[in-house]
Automatic annotation (TrEMBL):
This is Hydrolase. The keyword Hydrolase applies. Pfam families: Abhydrolase_6. It comes from the Bacteria. Keywords: Hydrolase. GO terms for molecular function: hydrolase activity. It comes from Agrobacterium bohemicum.
Amino acid sequence: MALDSSAPLSRTASVVLVHGAFVDASGWRRVYDTLLQEGYEVLVVQNSAVTFEQDVERTKSVIAEAKHPVVLVGHSYGGAVITEAGSEEKVLGLVYLAAFVPDVGESVFDLASQEVPGAEKAPLLPPKDGFIKLDPQKFAAAFSADIDPAEAQFMGAAQRPWGLEAVQSKITSAAWKSKPSFYLLATEDRMIPAQAQAAMAARAGATVVKVSSSHAVMLSQPEEVAALIRTAAKPNQPN
């Protein structure tokens, strides 16, 4: 019987995608479609962005569902989530996308509060009812300046508030200390300055790939994101 050459190859790694703050899991659609068509099992975590503990547990539960060893991918705040959840035995590697990479005893708040000379601060509004948001009028310029302007405007209007508890929770386990790590550094990011990304990636000993992108790298550069995930999914990656 002839093989169907259009059928995707079966892969031996699963990919788990963990989104960041102010957005939801729908932002992964382009990356998801690309990897799915290539034969990867792709699972997507929908964070609460209310408590860090809840988001870590959600991620661990999705990891447990995966059929193969897992490449765990985190964007922005999702980087903190995968740092904590990535110590699970099933995880073979971590991929950080314009992400926070805390060490044990650090929170996203601690990292975001560090001064970066010459860098603009993210346009956060004052906390309200235990949550923070970005100024909708400044969202596109800070978060997603290189995607379709109408889509960027909608993202600002539809943003999900970020719980202060999630922002301020301290990491208790840093998976990057024992798992191979990869970092996609967005050079045009106005949420997490490129200098801060570089410092966190270096501390984690991550393999770094630079890309000219806003913070919304999964939307503006989905092929670059998919390429780094493919690299992380290759067997025998060094620690």
